[in-house]
Amino acid sequence: MATDIHIATFIDGQFAENGFVVSVGKTDTAWIIDPGFAPSPARMIAHVAAKNLKPAALVLTHGHLDHINGVPDIREAFPEIPVYIAEAARPALTDPEENGSAKYGFPINVGEFDTIDLPHGGELKLGDTEWLLLDTSGHAPGSRSLYCEEAGIVFVGDALFQQAIGRTDFAYSNHNELIRNIKERLFTLPDETRVYSGHGPVTTIGDEKQFNPFLQ
User: What tens digit of pLDDT does each residue of 118-174 get?
Assistant: First the structure.
């Protein structure tokens, strides 16, 4: 099975949010995950061009401003790209209160367009790899993690960080839900699973089970 996953990380200049372009092996299909503020979207687009990739999906782990701000730029560059976001997170695309931008004084609405749901327990394919969709809500409604067993990788959005967890002091957050989802849906993955978070460095499930002070 193919486990040759290429992950390029793009850190935005405003919230230090991690966006990703993910491709598999020698195939040219790719995902763009969570395009944030400048310079990330432009750099993602340039990376796709430089590597001769064909974006197969724009995947949004949740609807907070720093994970969706670059959506219009990506959709302008790739007009046919399908956008995947959980149905519960979809209102945040056009609601500055829900996406958190209103509190910063620059309300963000990335536009009305068709999206594809990310149901918990569903699967997405990238090349010949399969990715399980996990509901890891709590930081934000409809938060999703994407887990590839054969590659030993999980993208978690802002659910889990190196020795930290997503903030739950937002209007639409739920602290108990987040803790429960991390323990039931992320901490049940193999310890060696590499965790790609929405902020900060790559960590592993095993390290977070052992060292994360919020989850002891």
Answer: 999 999 999 999 999 999 999 999 999 999 999 999 999 999 999 999 999 988 999
- Domain limits for position 106: 5-215
Looking at beta carbons, which pairs linking 204-213 to residues 24 or more positions away fall under 8 Å?
205/154, 207/162, 208/160, 208/162, 208/163, 211/163, 212/160, 212/163, 212/164, 212/165, 213/163
CATH code of 43's domain: 3.60.15.10
Task: List pLDDT tens digits, range 65-85.
Answer: 999 999 999 999 999 999 999
Structure tokens at 124: 């997405």
**Number of domains forming the structure of the chain:** 1
pTM passes above 0.85 = yes
Query: For residues 82 and 59, what is the distance between their CA atoms, to the nearest angstrom?
Result: 9
